[in-house]
What we know:
Layout: E1 4-5, E2 12-13, E3 16-19, H1 33-45, E4 50-52, H2 61-70, E5 78-83, H3 90-104, E6 111-114, H4 128-141, E7 147-150, H5 154-161, E8 168-170, H6 180-183, H7 185-190, E9 194-197, H8 230-250, H9 254-263, E10 268-273, H10 277-285, H11 293-307
Parallel strand pairs: 3-4, 3-10, 4-5, 5-6, 6-7, 7-8, 8-9, 9-10
Antiparallel strand pairs: 1-2
Amino acid sequence: MKLRTLGTSEVKISPIIMGTWQAGKDMWVGINDAETIKALRAAVEAGITTIDTAEYYGHGHSERVIGEALADVRDQVVYATKVFPNHLKYDQVMEACHNSLKNLRTDYLDLYQIHWPAGSWGTEYVPIEETMGALNNLKEQGKIRAIGVSNFSGVQLEEATDYGRIDSLQPPYSLFWRQVEEDGIPYCLANDITILAYSSMAQGLLTGKFGPDHTFPKGDHRSKNKLFKLENYERVQLALERLRPIAARNGISMGQLALAWLIAQPGTSAIAGARNAEQVRQNAKAGEISLTPTDLEEIDLIGRSVTDHLGDDPVMWEF
């Protein structure tokens, strides 16, 4: 898998990135640490060198599992983690970074990201200047190599760049969720900021495994995802039926089609979660797929049959 440069930094990332929200277990069901560790090892073996996590995922559990799984190959992987918006004061950022370093069993982070803008989810508002001051200090100390933001609007992203170099934006972005194409991506492309797309398979929808009558077990956060609301879900199912022949003629799975489309978008790498090693290996194969311009255009139009009806709110969930 050919590596890509993260923004203007010296960090090199894989076009397919392993996401580990599920590794934290909170808000997911049926997750097993031993299987997660096997999946992480399989990711590295398959060429997925970049692992995305956050202090919020299981209150550090995701980070700790990654640290256990990959400590002996730390020099071969890129760690990207995030600080939650309840830790954005200067001293809180410093402490949160220290805790993430400890959890991940490392002395530096390749990418440290603000998970959500200050004030999100009922947290206290902290001026971005203060948070960026802490992040810049950590960078000067060599504890982090690059700074990123996640879930920021275009305006919030521009404000953050007034106080330091931002090398990545991590938004929800998939064939079925594309608000960032209007609000953030133009600025990113003009300023060499890499897009790290999360929920790149629309939380499993684009794998095609969820049929018209699917329901989620209690505790699974996807039951709150707007794409699973009845009026949107019906359009999703129709779009999936139109995507299946494209995947078939390319000899790939639906999930691989979704990832291949996404990493073909300018400046974009795709974060893909996995519960086990086989899912990781299948995701990794998408990094080698080149879709034709005709395929990309057809996929784009099918995706818009869903996204044109979603409105402008970039938050995917109704918690």
